[in-house]
Specification:
The complex is a heterodimer of chains A (about 1100) and B (about 150).
Chain A lengths: L8 H28 L5 H21 L2 H18 L7 H19 L10 H14 L11 E5 L5 E6 H9 L3 E8 H6 L5 H11 E8 L1 H4 L11 E8 L3 H8 L6 E4 L11 H11 L7 H10 L8 E6 H6 L34 H4 L37 H26 L3 H26 E3 L1 H4 L1 H13 L3 E6 L4 E3 H22 L3 H6 L6 E10 L2 E8 L6 H10 L5 H5 L3 H5 L23 H10 L3 E7 L3 E9 L4 E9 L2 E6 L3 E7 L4 H4 E4 L2 E6 L2 E7 H4 L5 E3 L5 E3 L2 H4 L42 E8 L2 E7 L1 E9 L13 E6 L5 E5 L1 H7 L4 H20 L3 E10 L2 E6 L3 E8 L4 E3 L2 E6 L2 E6 L15 E9 L2 E17 L12 E7 L2 E6 L1 H8 L5 H5 L10 E5 L3 H13 L3 E5 L2 H11 L3 E7 L7 H10 L8 E5 L4 H10 L3 E4 L3 H15 L1
Parallel strand pairs in A: 1-7, 9-11, 16-27, 20-24, 29-37, 33-35, 38-39, 38-40, 40-41, 41-42
Antiparallel strand pairs in A: 1-2, 3-5, 3-6, 4-5, 6-7, 8-10, 11-12, 12-14, 13-14, 15-16, 15-25, 17-23, 18-19, 19-20, 21-22, 23-24, 26-27, 28-29, 28-35, 30-34, 31-32, 32-33, 34-35, 36-37
Helix pairs in contact in A: 1-2, 1-4, 1-18, 2-3, 2-8, 3-4, 3-5, 4-5, 11-12, 15-16, 18-19, 19-24, 33-34
Chain B lengths: L13 E9 L2 E6 L3 E6 L13 E7 L2 E7 H4 L12 E7 L2 E7 L1 E9 L9 E2 L2 E2 L3 E7 L2 E6 L1 H5 L5
Parallel strand pairs in B: 2-12, 5-7
Antiparallel strand pairs in B: 1-2, 1-8, 3-6, 4-5, 6-7, 9-10, 11-12
Classes of the chains: A alpha+beta (about 1100), B mainly beta (about 150).
């Protein structure tokens, strides 16, 4: 790279930085230009144009020929767009984008930029300009014109096209000779100042540093370093020198008329271009006439420039360049000067007062670096950062304050003035906090810095995939820490690409699905609860949970059983599993071996959490929650032994303290793992001491810490309990702990120091318990990186300086989980296993299938799936109102329709067109319950609350899929509305109480027991209930012959339904009793097993009609 | 803190060597690497770190890893006592503390008088040293900081 010694690295860096800044905006501007099409937004084009221009100007200055060349070609194309000679179309914009990409690449690797091959870009760009040029001008892009100095030296070479373009715009062309030493350096400017100042008033066609003028070593030492700029501007010659801030004789006017003339038809062309280019200010008439007059000459000509000082004397008439240059020093054949044909008088425009400034002339303030808002180009890692001057001022002030406070403090300490020391301490405290805030401000960057590039990504990608995708970006202004923004780049890119590639369907598929052909991707950033949330949502096909689950099973990542127990949401979340890719075919866009797991890992590193919501056919939303900053984070301090560690608060879900006496009941051992039972959930636990290879310790009544040893703990804790197995028998010196005062006289096991402290933490989407010995405060800490020797330790996220000046380590919750083999996969599946095991062992809650639906978009309801006959989607208009009742034509009959609000105090059905009818068969007819989408089926172990939401038509409530769900009593509902439908059944009722039969009902779930008891009692029977098989068996013996029939559940603690049935059937006395098994899920296997032990009939628990019928049937048979 | 390559150094140049003891072993280090020498402040141990890492300290707001030079050089792990010092050396854009038993004087040395270190210097592997320098009847092994702090061989 030919950089002069005189130009220091700093200047070059400035140029690079500025260029990046220009380039970072260009992409979106170009895309906007493309969108606008023929409807050209001049300000926008001008902006891009200026950017290309500054690039070129600087490149010329640094002798970066390739950059200059390429920037220049871009500029030509843009200029033609600006003058409406070229309507931007996707092809043109594409070429420009590619060229600017190349430029960015070259700027990023500026040293090698001259070795880059840019010919293909040049060809395509020149092709663009040429193809739109009038035929005569074709090739003018290639024709080069030498620019010579009055002394005949050639200083630069420009393309003829440029000169002509500049001329067409009515600009004057000047060759300005700056002396980098005297005009620039000595007056305290930088070359870039000059260039940007020039760019504000016109355009630099070419610039060069005259190396020859410096001379060789043998010459007289020269203190001049000439820098020539060929400059096109509308500034008039008499003003030029003042504007350019150089002496008169350094500015020379270049005479375009010396150029070989163009075709005579140019007039027409120009007239035409005038018509569409109203922004051109100077009178064209003069020039065209002049041009017309020019005879043809050879393509390449040497032209001479004349001093403006001379020209200036000619005042306004200069523009006509009527006077032939004095004796052109040229090797080319003399150019004929048909002076006679040139109109001798000044043209109107020239005589008139200076024209109003051209649109591009006034320097828009944004172009000057100082006023720019801080921004970062995305691609390369930033080494410098722009900071708002006001923030810097604040910092400066605060630093001053800090020094003042320190001085005061030192003084006060010297004099031992306690009061002042205190005051100073407070002051320091305040200043420091403010300083911290101010510093943080300098690190904050708008997220738009990375958002903006997605326009291009989506555009290119959707084009490559033949899709039509709109990207909507909101929340560009949301600010986040620089490091987070940088770290977000890759994961977000991946998510956006995924949305285009996998989310949004092709146009045909979309049309088939009845969607708009154009897909929409929304990229949104906003603040929520002290965090920043970024949402990437598409309206595409959504993620198929079943497909993901199948893939996971096929790839051996999970077992079929594990998948079966998962909710759809959990299944969708499986795409984050390493090794799982949802793409059916590997495209070159997604098939890069980078999966969603990498996205998750990257986001985990930033303290981010991902949440996926997806609905088949409707689209998916990826929600990423991120902290505002990583540099200062709130942490909880914990300790193991004498060491303190910090746990980022964002990872901590809750703190659990288990009293020493309760340890046994709260901590379970499943397999070889310890789990914490927390609100019915099993959470694997890990001891921090074990993880760190430290001995577990305990504190005795004197507050002395001892290594945890079995012989002492055995007294109060179960010895075989693995939780309290002997810790590593390290001979930790007994260290005094601070806080805990001795508590003599109390029962040892009830002292707080013996309690178990568990932090329930979340790593990614996985929860575990971390056992620590002591809990301390929550503090805001400054995260500092660990040295290279410790970086590899996954246990730590970094270190921090504690209040006492010592160093504390920050734990990496995700890293610990991995080290403990609790990775999200292993952990979640194992926890799942444990949970079902435990649930099976102690809860005996039946798995019940429910159909979930909404009565109102906010109100989730459920009915036992077994009762549902069909679910139909209908339009509200299909409902007929007949005789004050709603009916629907269904399978050739009029099916009565109900809504939940007919009887229950729930919200009325929303007034919407798309409805769902859930069809039930009861009282020997079809009835339909109206509901709204979404409808889903879940299989869940329900705990039904029978009191809170109980009302007519509602059996109770339960939490399903994290929503309070009302369990609908369809019988109650219909019966309330149409008691007459059930009269038939009532007739069958035993007429007198004496005839009533006693039925033994065995059911462990309160809910079902009460429910069934009510049904059976209503039907006129006497019911004796039992909670499990054992109780039932005893009751049976006690009641002897009273009991005529047994209705039993299958899954129950102590003695299950099978065993009970078997006992009954094998017993001589009760063998004749009919046994009806009720179940929520009649699997074939169960049925077979039931029949084998003698179950007479299987019924579904909440299918009231059939169950009662069945009971009647058996009782009648008996009689 | 990039150290010039050995071969690029002017052979004639003289330089200063900070000397210190590890047990009874006298070792030197080119003063150019040494940022400062501090007393042993509170060291936070880092569980699961390699054996030769004593822990981390707070050096005016920077987190500095402290290496037990005795352990690293396979002499013997150091006991921390009042004479113990931590030499803060610049290494690959960060500071690393080298814990030593006792700091001795700083002596001038001539580059050309440093002899290639033998395979074994006072029971320590020769690869840890740049060379050996004879001074005042003492044989001082000059520590090769890059080699000592090389990662990946804990």
């Amino acid at each position: 790279m030919a950089i002069l010694d005189g130009i220091d690295d700093e200047t070059l860096e400035l140029y690079i930085e500025e260029s990046r800044e220009h380039l970072s905006d260009i992409e979106n501007d170009l895309l906007a230009i493309e969108d606008a099409g023929a409807n050209i937004d001049e300000t926008l084009v001008n902006k891009v144009f200026r950017a290309a221009h500054s690039l070129k100007g600087g490149a010329g200055f640094f002798n970066l020929t390739k950059i200059k060349e390429l920037a220049h070609r871009c500029e030509n194309v843009l200029d033609m767009i600006r003058s409406r000679e070229l309507a931007p179309n996707p092809e043109i914009v594409n070429n420009l984008l590619l060229a600017f990409d190349k430029l960015r690449e070259m700027i990023n690797n500026i040293a090698a930029s001259d070795q880059e091959d840019i010919s293909e870009f040049i060809v395509s760009l020149t092709g663009l300009t040429d193809s739109y040029l009038p035929p005569e001008e074709k090739g003018s892009g290639e024709r080069m014109v030498d620019i010579t100095l009055p002394d005949g030296r050639k200083v630069m070479e420009v393309s003829e096209l440029d000169l002509r373009l500049a001329d067409k715009e009515g600009s004057f062309l000047y060759v300005i000779n700056y002396d980098l030493i005297n005009d620039v350096q000595r007056v305290g400017k930088t070359p870039l100042d000059i260039i940007s100042a020039l760019c504000d008033v016109g355009q630099i066609l070419e610039s060069t540093i005259d190396m020859m003028a410096v001379g060789t070593l043998d010459d007289e030492p020269s203190n001049r370093l000439p820098f020539y700029v060929l400059f096109a501007t509308i500034v008039k010659p008499d003003m030029a020198a003042i504007i350019f801030e150089v002496e008169d004789d350094k500015v020379q006017l270049y005479d375009i008329s010396q150029l070989p003339p163009e075709s005579t038809e140019e007039t027409a062309d120009e007239a035409a271009s005038d018509a569409i280019a109203p922004q051109t200010v100077t009178d064209k008439g003069a020039k065209t006439t002049k041009a017309k007059a020019k005879p043809k000459a050879k393509a390449k000509a040497k032209v001479k420039v004349q001093p403006t000082s001379a020209a200036a004397k000619a005042k306004a008439s200069v523009r006509e360049a009527a006077a032939p240059p004095p004796k052109p020093v040229t090797t080319a054949p003399p150019i004929p000067k048909p002076a006679a044909t040139i109109p001798p008088t000044p043209k109107p425009a020239a005589t008139a007062p200076p024209p109003t400034p051209a649109p591009e002339a006034p320097p828009p303030k944004a172009a000057s670096p100082a006023s720019k808002t801080p921004e970062t180009p995305a691609a390369p890692v930033e080494t410098s950062l722009r900071v708002n001057v006001a923030v810097l001022e604040t910092l400066m002030n605060l630093a001053g304050e800090l020094v003042l406070s320190r001085n005061q403090l030192l003084e006060a300490i010297n004099q031992n003035d306690q009061r002042t020391i205190q005051v100073c301490g407070q002051r320091l405290n305040m200043v420091t906090s403010e300083l911290q805030e101010a510093i943080m401000l300098t690190r904050m960057q708008p997220i738009g810095n990375i958002f903006s590039k997605f326009n291009r990504i989506v555009r290119d990608l959707s084009r490559a995939l033949g899709k039509d995708v709109d990207l909507n970006i909101t929340g560009k202004e949301v600010e986040m820490d620089k490091t987070i923004i940088e770290g977000l780049n890759d994961p977000l890119t991946h998510l956006v690409r995924n949305a285009v590639d996998h989310g949004v369907e092709g146009p045909e598929e979309r049309s088939r699905a009845g969607k708009k052909a154009t897909g929409t991707i929304n990229l949104k950033a906003f603040h929520e609860a002290g965090q920043v949330v970024i949402e990437i949502s598409d309206d595409g096909k959504g993620i198929d949970p079943q497909k993901i689950a199948n893939t996971a099973v096929n790839k051996g990542l999970l077992t079929a059983d594990q998948v079966k127990a998962m909710s759809d949401k959990e299944r969708v979340a499986l795409i984050m599993l390493p090794g799982l890719s949802s793409a059916e075919k590997v495209t070159d866009i997604s098939g890069r071996g980078v999966g969603m797991d990498v996205v998750k890992t990257n986001l985990d590193k930033l303290g981010g959490q991902v949440d996926i919501e997806s609905e088949m056919g409707k689209g998916s939303t990826f929600r990423v929650k991120l902290p505002l900053t990583l540099a200062i984070i709130p942490c909880l301090l914990v300790s193991v032994g004498a060491d303190r560690y910090a746990v980022p608060q964002i990872n901590v879900d809750e703190l659990i303290r288990i009293r020493a006496a309760q340890v046994k009941s709260r901590i379970e051992i499943v397999g070889d793992a310890e789990v914490l039972i927390l609100r019915g959930k099993l959470i694997p636990i890990v001891h921090l001491a074990d993880m760190l290879g430290l001995p577990r310790t305990w504190v005795d009544e004197d507050g002395v810490r001892h290594p945890d040893q079995r012989n002492r703990l055995a007294d109060r804790r179960s010895p075989e309990h693995p939780l309290f197995k002997e810790g590593a028998e390290a001979d930790l010196k007994e260290t005094k702990t601070t806080g805990t005062p001795p508590r003599k006289g109390k029962d040892r096991r009830h002292r707080s120091a013996s309690d178990l402290n568990i932090l329930v933490v979340t790593a990614g989407n996985f929860q575990y318990g971390l056992v620590v010995e002591e809990l301390h405060d929550t503090v805001e800490i400054v995260v500092k990186p660990l040295g290279r020797h410790l970086k590899h330790l996954r246990e730590y996220a970094g270190a921090t300086i504690m209040g006492d000046g010592s160093v504390g380590l920050i734990l990496d919750v995700a890293g610990l989980a991995e080290l403990a083999n609790l990775s999200s996969l292993a952990g979640s599946s194992r926890a799942e296993e444990l949970e079902s095991e435990a649930a099976a062992r102690e809860q005996y809650q039946d798995v019940q299938s429910f159909l979930l639906f909404r009565n109102d978009p906010t109100e989730q309801c459920a009915v036992p799936l077994d009762l549902v006959d069909r679910v139909e989607q209908i339009a509200a208009s299909q409902i007929e109102r007949v005789g004050g009742r709603s009916v629907l034509q269904y399978r050739g009959e009029s099916m009565p329709l109900f809504t939940l609000s007919d009887v229950a105090g729930v919200k009325p059905l929303p007034d919407q067109e798309e409805l769902v009818v859930i069809v039930f068969q009861l009282a020997e007819r079809n009835v339909g319950l109206l509901a709204v989408m979404p409808v889903d089926v879940v299989e869940t172990r329900v705990k039904i609350d029978q009191s809170t939401l109980l009302q007519t038509g509602i059996l109770g409530s339960s939490i399903i899929n994290k929503m309070t769900t009302q369990i609908v009593d369809i019988y109650g509902l219909v019966e309330t509305l149409h008691p007459e439908w059930f009269e038939n059944r009532l007739k069958n009722r035993p007429a007198t109480p004496e005839a009533a039969q006693t039925i033994l009902l065995v059911e462990d779930s309160d809910f079902f027991r009460n429910q069934l008891k009510r049904y059976i009692t209503e039907d006129g029977h006497t019911v004796i209930t039992a909670e499990d098989g054992l109780v039932a068996w005893k009751l049976l013996q006690k009641e002897k012959g009273n009991i005529k029939l047994v209705v039993t559940d299958i899954e129950m603690p102590n003695m299950d339904g099978f065993e009970l049935t078997q006992k009954i059937k094998e017993h001589a006395e009760y063998g004749h009793l009919p046994v009806i098994a009720v179940t929520s899920l009649a699997g074939d296997e169960d049925v077979a097993r039931g029949k084998a032990v003698g179950v007479d009939e299987y019924q579904i628990k909440l299918d009231k009609d059939r169950l009662l019928e069945c009971i009647r049937h058996f009782l009648n048979e008996r009689q | 803190m990039a150290r010039p390559k050995r071969e690029q150094r002017d052979a004639k140049a003289s330089f200063l060597v900070s000397t210190f003891y590890l047990g009874e072993t006298l070792i030197g280090i080119d003063t150019i690497h040494v940022q400062e020498i501090t007393k042993v402040v509170k060291i936070t141990r880092v569980p699961r770190a390699p054996d030769y890492i004593v822990g981390i300290i707070n050096l005016r707001g920077r987190i500095v890893t402290v290496v037990d030079l005795g352990c690293k050089l396979d002499i013997e792990p150091l006991d921390i006592h009042t004479g113990s010092r931590i030499m803060i050396v610049g290494w690959q854009d960060e500071y690393v503390g080298l814990m030593v038993d006792r700091v001795a004087e700083v002596i001038p040395a001539e580059r050309d008088q440093i002899t290639e270190s033998p395979a074994n210097v006072k029971g320590v592997q020769g690869r840890f040293f740049e060379g050996v320098y004879r001074y005042d009847n003492h044989l001082i092994a000059i520590l090769d900081v890059d080699e000592v702090l090389l990662l990946g061989d804990a």
